[in-house]
Write a structure and sequence with these properties.
Rossmann fold, two-stranded antiparallel sheet, 6-stranded parallel β-sheet, DNA polymerase, domain 1, 10 helices, globular, alpha/beta, 2 domains, 16% strand
């Protein structure tokens, strides 16, 4: 029986593609580097900010000092502007309220830095989630199982009682390392073909499909 649903943030709860495109290209412009293409941004999203910025930097600029300067600028700019630049996907707020009313425990597990994740959840979904965990120094990023287990401990549930909802490869892979169920959504940053390459097989194309799936597909 499913007792908890843990959601990814970018590409699952919030549509942040255009915000991320603007932020990372503002960073590249600030440091005099070429703008990133939509495809470069799409394939990088869902990973940590460090991995995202490193992959966007041109191949001839990969030294650690430059990376740290760009990363600090990018993170500060995101924190200052992201709340105003992104919004929940249509139907997500209603889904969360329905799941909460049905008695599910709700969590967020994201590779976005914890400070920004907490700020966004407080602003966009106040009072909805039981626990939110972004990337912290004491935890590795997805797909390492340690932070997933930490969230489940906070929610007081077992892996077999938990569904991880996400749009990216790290979301699926963390279910394989932690024992959670996986529900893949296709309105985010990855295609079904992308996710099938890493072994995912359960997908939902609409929020309504996801709601029905959470209630009936994991018994």
């Amino acid at each position: 029986m499913i007792k908890a649903v843990i959601f990814d943030l970018d590409g699952t709860l919030l549509d942040t593609f255009h915000a991320k495109k603007s932020f990372v290209n503002h960073t590249m412009e600030h440091f005099g580097f070429p703008m990133a293409s939509d495809e470069e941004i799409r394939v990088g999203l869902g990973n940590s900010a460090r991995s995202f910025v490193r992959n966007i930097l041109p191949p001839y600029v990969q030294d650690d000092e430059t990376l740290e300067r760009c990363l600090a600028f990018y993170r500060d700019y995101c924190f200052s502007h992201e709340c105003d630049a992104c919004a929940p996907y249509e139907g997500i707020a209603e889904l969360l309220n329905e799941l909460k009313a049905l008695g599910y425990k709700l969590g967020v597990f994201t590779n976005k830095c914890d400070k920004t994740a907490q700020m966004l959840i407080d602003a966009k979904f106040p009072g909805i989630f039981d626990y939110v965990l972004g990337l912290r120094d004491e935890f590795p990023s997805k797909p390492d199982p340690a932070p997933a287990r930490f969230i489940m401990d906070k929610l007081e549930v077992e892996p077999e009682e938990t569904v991880m909802v996400g749009d990216g490869e790290p979301d699926f892979l963390v279910t394989q390392t932690s024992g959670m169920h996986y529900a893949g959504v296709l309105w985010g940053f990855r295609t079904e073909a992308d996710l099938r390459l890493v072994g995912a097989s359960r997908f939902y194309r609409t929020v309504d499909e996801l709601k029905k799936g959470i209630i009936s597909d994991f018994d």
